[in-house]
Amino acid sequence: MLQGSQSWTFDNSPVILSTGTAGGPFEAEGNLGRDFDHLFSDIWMSEDSFEKAQTKLMEEAAYASLSKINKKPEDMQFVFAGDLINQITATSFACRSLAIPYIGLFGACSTSMEGLALGSFIVDKGGADYILTGSASHNAAVEKQFRYPTEYGAQKPPTSQWTVTASGAAVVGKTGTGPKVTSATIGKVIDMGLTDPFNMGGAMAPAAADTIEAHCTDLNRDPSYYDYIVTGDLGSVGLPLMKELLQQKGVMVTDDQCIDCGLLIYNEDQNIQAGASGSGCSAAVVYGHLLNRMKDKEINKMLVVATGALLSPLSYQQKESIPCIAHAVSIERGQN
Amino acid sequence: MLQGSQSWTFDNSPVILSTGTAGGPFEAEGNLGRDFDHLFSDIWMSEDSFEKAQTKLMEEAAYASLSKINKKPEDMQFVFAGDLINQITATSFACRSLAIPYIGLFGACSTSMEGLALGSFIVDKGGADYILTGSASHNAAVEKQFRYPTEYGAQKPPTSQWTVTASGAAVVGKTGTGPKVTSATIGKVIDMGLTDPFNMGGAMAPAAADTIEAHCTDLNRDPSYYDYIVTGDLGSVGLPLMKELLQQKGVMVTDDQCIDCGLLIYNEDQNIQAGASGSGCSAAVVYGHLLNRMKDKEINKMLVVATGALLSPLSYQQKESIPCIAHAVSIERGQN
């Protein structure tokens, strides 16, 4: 039900019954390689285009999440998913093979939590017994579309982020064993006038701060309620900015409490400048690494704040600033 | 709540409290010119790009729907909207000025009913008191992106459809006076292998038929329950195909019962080949003309089946076929 101005609390606490993740060869070498269910050794993934490879990534994560609980696509009532590719074709083609009634989303890198928030609401209120949600991104497909084909070897400035080649999917159900989705806060479009597409973290930080503040106000909750406030993906430029903005708003978070998916996935030697990004990043890190840590009882409660830069190459060329958004979902270990 | 495999029935019958529509000069000359709240006399709409003009169209429809019931953007909890432009920037920029918590959708021309279905579910289950939903398209922005800049004067074959320059928005609330949203059916991706991007109606007809069949099965309802089954947009090629497919499935609809937004909006002299399309088409025709007819008691019950072709120029170049989808929402006049 609605709580405050822009949040939902889930009275029946929908359960994340299962998750699946897939990644590419560069992600295999990163910090979280062992957290992936499937790792492709080749960025083409046996496909003839990078967009088709991204479709394969999404399918792989979806089928991995289903197979762990012995479910088939036809056991799901709806899939809530999207990505960054024009007209979200990579997701739509994955949903063609899944053949599950499909709600297409666009929230750029915030899509992961947009899908989990909506899907959890639908399950919580009896609109589905099971839903599937997730997102994927492919470095070569996304870089080509937003910037340059990676084959050009174009250089990027230190504030830029590296689009991950990864996917994450989750099955949410009414009852069962697993982490519970307890609330969600839907963000507004926040645009502070930043125009540099090589500094997404800086552009998105105010959106993350706005949504976290709204979440705490709506739920009358101190940030200390959460072990972690997990952003995805602000990187090394955006994360400190977000903390500073929260401090200005009087929302007191600690340094250790704030972690960012874009800073977790790769290791220091991978030269990814300000961190990782891409709509598959938070999906893969949350549905892989972080829920694994929750399973190991290292995390009890986390607020995942997925951030999206809603620009396009065309809006940039037309000299628009970068509109940003962040959606937050709280996930708690519960008694299981 | 979930009914059957992929439908929701709304126990509290959310109400369409208000709608707003806007159109361009070509739409003003069409059959439904008088049904628009606002008509722009210039396709640039005083903006310096067609994409910004589309944003203006969306804003105009949104503010028109709000002002009719003396509401402001801040009275809405959420906006469910999207469009066809890459990364749905036209909608995101409109939502930047509206500053309502925003759920971005992508369903191509099915976005109108995707938004109404989701928004109605959220209102029905106490997730919002008021939501805003809608979509827009601009002929010159969409044609440029998917085909050629209109200034080139490229010819199109007779099976092609004309992207409308129009927008439609609706405010849905828990209680009040207005047409009721009584159920929704979420479609699957249906792809029969068609590859011609100049024949969207033919490609989308099977998706419409599939969703209508699912709706009737899920609700155990004969199509005769509805005065009209309104597609958007199959055009003159797709509509007869859909009727034939329904007949093959044993879903008996009558000729008079099936109308198509893409065949209503323009007049015969406007040379728009197989009809109109664009994500603003069904939004404008349903939230303008058809709900005006319901207000006049000429329509009591209609099933609006918005269809989307989920391709991109790139997926076409990569020789993919056209994945399609259709989402259906039933709107009933009720006692008001």
Could you explain the architecture of this structure?
Two copies of one chain form a homodimer. Chain A is of the alpha/beta class. Chain A has two domains: 2-173, Stage V sporulation protein AD (Peroxisomal Thiolase, Chain A, domain 1); 180-332, Stage V sporulation protein AD (Peroxisomal Thiolase, Chain A, domain 1, 3-Layer(aba) Sandwich). Chain A has ten helices and 15 strands. Chain A has helices at residues 25-28, 50-67, 89-98, 111-124, 139-146, 200-218, 235-249, 261-264, 279-295, 313-317, and strands at 2-3, 7-9, 15-23, 38-39, 78-82, 102-104, 130-137, 162-163, 166-173, 180-185, 228-232, 258-260, 276-277, 301-309, 324-332. Chain A has a seven-stranded mixed beta sheet, with helices on both faces. The first copy, chain A, has a six-stranded mixed beta sheet with strand order 4-3-9-7-5-6, with helices on both faces. The longest helix of chain A has 19 residues, at 200-218. Chain A is globular and about 50 Å long. At the A-B interface, α3, β6, α4 and α10 of A face α3, β6, α4 and α10 of B. Chains A, B: Pfam families: SpoVAD (PF07451).
